[in-house]
Each structure stands twice: as C-alpha cells, then as structure tokens.
Design goal:
GO molecular function, one term: G protein-coupled receptor activity
CATH topology of the largest domain: Rhopdopsin 7-helix transmembrane proteins
Strand content: 5-15%
CATH architecture of the largest domain: Up-down Bundle
Membrane topology: Multi-pass membrane protein
Subcellular location: Cell membrane
Keywords: Cell membrane, G-protein coupled receptor, Glycoprotein, Membrane, Receptor, Signal, Transducer, Transmembrane, Transmembrane helix
Family: Belongs to the G-protein coupled receptor 3 family.
Bound molecules: 2-acetamido-2-deoxy-beta-D-glucopyranose
Number of strands: 27
Length: about 850
Amino acid sequence: MEHIFTLLHVVMAIINFSRTNGTFCSMQGELVYPQLSKEGDITIGAIFPFHSIWEITDLSYSVRPPPVKCMSLDFRAFQFSQTLIYAIEEINNSSSLLPGVSLGYKIYDTCSSTAMGVRAVMALVNGNENLDLNEPCTKPTEVQAMIGETYSAVSMAIANSIGPLSVPIISHYSTCECLSDKRKYPSFLRTIPSDYFQSRALAEMVKHFGWTWVGAIRRDDDYGNSGMAAFTEAASELGICLEYSLPFFRTYSQEKVLRIIQQIKSSTSRVIIGFLDTWDLEMLVHVFFEHNITGYQWVGTEAWIFDPELAKLDRFNILQGAIGMAISETTVTGLQDFILDVQPLKSAGNAAFTEFWEAMFQCTFTIENDYRNTTICTGKEKLSEVENTFTDMSLMPIFSNVYKGVYAVAHALHHLLGCTKTCPTKKQPDPFTFLEHLKRVHFKTKEGEEVYFDANGDPAAKYEIINWQTTKEHQYEFIAVGLYDSSFPPNDRLAVNLNSIVWAQNSNQMPRSVCSESCPSGTRKAVQKGKPICCFDCIPCAEGEISNTTDSIECEQCNQDYWSNTRRDECVKKEIEFLSYEETMGILLTVVSIIGALTTIIIAIIFFKYKDTPIVKANNSELSFLLLFSLTLCFLCSLTFIGQPSEWSCVLRHTMFGIIFVLCISCVLGKTIVVLMAFRATLPGSNAMKWFGPPQQRLSVLSLTLIQVLICVIWLATSPPFPFKNLKRYKEKIILECHLGSNVGFWAVLGYIGLLALFCFILAFLARKLPDNFNEAKFITFSMLIFCAVWITFIPAYVSSPGKFTVAVEIFAILASSFGLLFCIFLPKCYIIILKPEKNTKKQMMGKVAVK
Ligand SMILES: *[C@@H]1O[C@H](CO)[C@@H](O)[C@H](O)[C@H]1NC(C)=O
Ligand SMILES: *[C@@H]1O[C@H](CO)[C@@H](O)[C@H](O)[C@H]1NC(C)=O
Ligand SMILES: *[C@@H]1O[C@H](CO)[C@@H](O)[C@H](O)[C@H]1NC(C)=O
Ligand SMILES: *[C@@H]1O[C@H](CO)[C@@H](O)[C@H](O)[C@H]1NC(C)=O
Ligand SMILES: *[C@@H]1O[C@H](CO)[C@@H](O)[C@H](O)[C@H]1NC(C)=O
C-alpha cells in the first residue's frame, strides 16, 4: 500500500493540492455554492469535477465515513466550464438562435463524488417543490437542463436522483453503457457514445487483428465492469476468448495487486485490454515496470488512450504501441482562444478564479507566514509561460461534446418557445415537455457535424483509432490509424491502415495472441476439453471429407462422385473403374477370345473341306457345324463384357451369353443323344434313328434355345440389366458395372445352362462305354466335366472378386468353357483328319466295331 501512495505522489505533484483543502466544497458546510455563474432569462446548469477526493471503497458500515475532502484542483473542469460559457455566449450573441433570450449558467463542483454530485443537482433543481410523484413537475426548475457530469459513477447517481423530476442532464464524458437504460435514467442524454459502442468497436478491432486470446484489466467500478461486460458479450459473438478479466482499483491492497501481476505473468496471451482510466494506469505502469512485465500489446478505451499526461508518465514504455478508440477529432473554431482567455472565468466566479490562478501559477494571493517560500501572485502572470493541463487542448473532442450539449438545449428551447425572428415568450417550459423536445433535436453544428440522440439518448458512435508511437525524442505521439463509425453497415464500420501501426516493443510485426494456432485446410477444430473455444486441436479430416478453409469447424463430406485428395482440402472426382480395351487384362482377354473365334472358324473350314470324309459324316455334321458356329459366337460374346458398360452392352452381355451357351449345350446334347440312338440303331429290330433324325435334332436344339430366349425375354421385360455406378464397394473409386436388374433372372439363365450341361453330362457319361470306333461320348463327357468344373468354380469367384475382376472372371469362365468344348470335341477329329488320314476311312470306322 505504501509504495502505491508513493507512486501517486508523483502524479499529485503536478497539481498543487495542499492549499485547496475544503475551501469550497466541504460537506461540513451546509450550503453548496456554484463555482461559476451568470444570470440569464433561462439558466443552464452544469456540474463538473473541479476537485477530486479519495474515495475509500473498502469501508465497513460500522465506521462513520470521514468527511469528504476535496483536493487537487483539476484544470479540465475549468476547460469544460470555459467551453460551456463560450457556447452560451455564442448563442447569446446569435441573432438566429434564441433571439432576445439571454442564457445564464450555474456551474457546480462534484468533487468527483456521488454525494457531492447529488447535492449539487439538488441545489440546481430546488426551484421545484412538487413532491407528488404521480404528477409531472409543472413548475419550472431553477435550471432548464444540466450539462455534465464527467464521471459515469457520479452521472448515475445524479441521473438517478433527478430522473423523476424529468430535468434533462446531458453528459459530455460519461460513457458507461448502463446509462443507456432509460427505465433507470429517463432524463439522461449524452453527446459521447456509450461504452456499448466502444466495447463493440474494440471487440471488432481485436478480431480484425486476429487476436482471439486476450486478457483484460478492468476498473472495479461501474465503468470498468459494465464496459467489460459489453466487451465480453461482443467478443464471444465474434469468437474472441478472454484468458482473464481482472478487476483493479487504485486503492487495492498490495496483495491484491500482486495477485493480478502473478496472473498476468502466468498468462499466455499477449494482448491486454484496459478498461481503466488514466489514474489506474499511472499506477499500473509503475507496478508493471517493477515486475518487469513488458512487451504486452495494450488495447485501450477512450478513457486513457488519448491522454497526454499518461503518455508523459509512461517513461518505461510499458504502453508502447498501445492502440485504442478515441472520440474522433473534432474542433470548435475559436474555442481554443476563448479557453485561454481567462476573463470569462474571472467575471463568473471570483473565488473559483482565485483558486484557479493560484494553482495555475503556484503562487498565493494571501500572505501568510507559513508560506514564506511561495511566491506572491501579482495577477499579471502570463498564461503563455506555463504549460499544464489547462493549456493542453487534446481533449478538444470532449470540449466539443460540451458545446454540442449546450447547443442541443438551445435548439430545443428555440423550438419550444416558438422563436422565429424573435421569441414570443421567455417563460421556461416545464421539464417534461422540454425533455421530450430535447430528445428529438436534430441539428448541425457550425462545423457541419450532425447532432441527434437515438432512442437511448446516445449519439452515433464515431471513433478514431489511436496508436501510441514513439518519436525520435522518446516521447509518444498519438497517431490516428483508422476510423470506426457505428452508423455504417456492420462490415464497413472499421477501417484501419495496418501499415501505419507501430506495435508493442516498437515492432512493425503485428503481435499474435491466440490460444491455438489456426487450423490449416484439411483439418478441423476440436475444442480442448474444459477450455474456451479458442483453444483447440486440429484434427485431420477423415477419408472422403474435406475442409478447404482455415479454422473450419466441420469437415465437409464430399459429393458421392467425389473423394478427398491426400491433403483433404479438395474433393476430386473418384476414379472410374471398368474393364477396358486399353488395359493389359482387357487386351489379353480380347486377344484370347479372338484367337478362340479364329480357331473355331479354322476348324469349321477344315471340317467343311473334309465334309465328305467318314469321320465328319459319322459325327453328324449338321450339329457339328451348328456347334462350331455357336462356339464362335461364344468367343465373340465375351467381347461384350469388355469396355465401358452401356445400356446396350449390359442387356446384350447376359442375354447373348445365355442364349448362345444354351445353343451350344443343346448342340452337344443333341450329339450325345445321337450317339445313344446310333448305338440303339445297331441293335436288331430298332429304328431309333427314326426317332431322332435330323428334323428332330433341329427341333430339339431350337426348342431348348427358345426356352432360354423366353427366360431372357421375361428377364428383360421385368427388370433388365442396366449400367450402374457402384459407390459402395470402394470408397475412393467408382466401379462401373452392369446391374443385373433381377438376380433371379441372372441365376435362372445360368441355372438353365447348368441344368442342360448336367443333363448332357449324365447322358454322355452313360454313353461313354458304348462301342464305337469313334465314340464321341467320351470326349463329350470330358468336355462337360471341364464345363461344369469351370462354372462351378466361377460362382464363388464371381461373388467374391472385386470390381472389374468380376467381369474378368466371367469372361475367363466363358473362354475356358468354350475352349474346353472346342478342344475336347473337335481337336481329336482334326488330329485324325489332318495327321492320320489313313484312319479316316469307312473301313477303319466300321472295323473297330467289328473287332468289338
Ligand atoms: C447575453 O447578452 C446580454 C446582452 O445582449 C448580456 O447582458 C448578457 O450578459 C449576456 N449573457 C452571457 C451569458 O454572455
Ligand atoms: C459575443 O459578443 C460580444 C460583444 O459583441 C463579444 O465580445 C464576444 O466575443 C462574443 N462572444 C462570442 C462567443 O462570440
Ligand atoms: C527484465 O526482463 C529483461 C528481459 O526479459 C531482463 O533482461 C532483465 O534483466 C529483467 N529485469 C529484472 C529486474 O528482472
Ligand atoms: C524554503 O526554501 C529553502 C530553500 O529554497 C528551504 O531550505 C527551506 O526549508 C524552505 N522553507 C520552508 C518552510 O519550506
Ligand atoms: C470450398 O469448397 C466449397 C464447396 O465445397 C466451394 O464452394 C468454395 O468455393 C471452396 N472455397 C475455397 C476457398 O476453395
């Protein structure tokens, strides 16, 4: 505690407070006098903090509070008063605004104390004695309206107490958002934007700089707490997280301050939002330096960001690069000269003026022995020779707010009194009517600035973004680096020139303050358990999902025809798979099937050439040729399985295959039956051949095939096969295949073939031992065995092989069974025809039989 007070002594030293103790505004005195006043037809009240007090906040109620002591004269209040006087004089002089009506003023001191403030307003309104709360006040008050107060806490107390009297109070500097609550403060208006806007603007700015992980120190009073609450709300909307929000007050014990320091030291965020005022920061700057806490990027509210006094005190560059919102630069022409001309002050209040003069020039008018060392005031001291708060014009925007407040009152009066060239009456309107009029004023100042109040009595918020930059002389300069205007649409409100900003530690690099670095595309955010939303891990998107922006919350599922790339930031078209003519397997199968077809044709040619030889004749040449023809088709029909499935190829594939195979098998079956019949025919008394002559053979082949055609027609008519994109089998590629349409159809076609093959096999098996020199039955049995083996192995392979291999397996089965038939049935005969022509005689054929 002690060292804090030592620090404050540095601050205090600027202002001479030893002599002002209790001079004007002691609470012990029963009467409260205005500091400055002038008579007029209509009086405007004003309350400014000419002094400050030490308010002891940690008091318990058991102790009687000590009397309020007003100390340390604040020259700012004199500047505000001068501004008010200037505005009133200007209106008094004007021939267009309130012509003929003279305005007076009464300016009171609040001592920055709520108690004193309430006393002051009571003195200002005490003309009104109507105590019935149900009746509006009809009797005019002492003053028409009030300008002030500076501090939000005092404004709240005042606005609360005079709210029921409907006396308007227009503040130039109280920014607390709480004052916008018109149920609590019905007669409170202001010309400074509410902290609500500032908090929002600050949050938007913080977001703009990408700082999502920030700390905050707030003044432990209404200003800090409600400003912080508004900031927190806006921040959470914008996705900014607060690592900490610490209350601070300049009367805090050392312990409490140390705890704050510890918390800041252990934090990871690099940005501190300061909802503080100049006094708090002056202390904090020293404490920060003592604990070596530097390099934080400060973000400030208008309460301190534009304060040259604070800037002078920050010798340790704790606040270097601070950035924040300040009321945008406005001037009132002629005001500066007026303020520096102290004559109006002198004429408005002698006692106040004396105190002012003494404090200003550190001299005294009263000669006392105690003060031998102090100079005696001559009254001729030159203002141009001193430099202090009074000569500093950096609060011009706030002066402008006072000026606008006075003008708002004047415009409302002008309207209400029905003034044109002259004012018909100078009678004060009743407060309620006046307040209603005041809320609706809309005018332009001589600088062209529009003044109006919104439904909450607040003006439109316009801020300048101020950056503390160090000059060569190691002093701070306030550089405007951007603007914020709440009357613009949300996205255009903030305009910042990033290049002109100098950040903390005199860096050109914008500091980063995030809990977790942003997630690159291809990943998504996953909030860490128990942490704020700004702390997250980046989790790569799953297969088939992408995120193409940084910091995405969800991975997006790719469209069904698309799949994620390896970086998971783009959906790429899935690879399409089918057995094509271009790939090796497709080419191989094509070649094999064409070779098969050619072989069949060559055999057919050989057979045709030797059609008159016994071996061809004996073997029922008609069925042989039909078989060869159908085998050619078998080989060729495998080609319909290769290439991109189309509507036609899908339909053709299975039906062609089914019909041709049935044709094939029925030929073989015919041959088997012929062998059986031929044997019977050799037996005496049989004329079996008559029963199965060529016409019957043709008929049976035709009818067996027709059954398959019928099956196919039914299949196609009910649910035909169609090309189909199989997305399920593989996630990352599409298989183009022929959907069977109806499984029953497919298996019926295959089953019929199987049935015929089985029947054929059984018959051939029965006939295999029959004596014949060239008994085909052996070969047919063998070929049917191959055929059945191939197709039986086909089924599991077909069901289990993935993608295009299903098709390949099917082709393979077709080719294998076709070759099986071709080679088993025709190769032995070709061998005899070409290589052993001596055996190809009728005698040989018959001989065998004879031997048997
Ligand atoms: C207003 O003007 C009148 C005369 O025009 C003067 O008597 C009065 O003092 C002026 N009031 C102020 C506050 O300057
Ligand atoms: C008002 O008029 C008086 C006399 O004409 C002049 O001295 C004074 O400077 C004027 N005040 C303002 C604020 O214009
Ligand atoms: C403060 O910190 C700086 C760098 O971080 C270091 O060089 C310096 O010694 C520290 N001073 C004290 C008093 O801890
Ligand atoms: C007056 O000033 C002198 C030197 O300037 C100093 O030594 C002396 O103590 C001062 N006296 C008082 C009463 O402050
Ligand atoms: C991200 O993907 C969506 C759709 O997936 C697309 O509309 C958008 O343009 C993409 N954005 C970028 C930056 O690629």
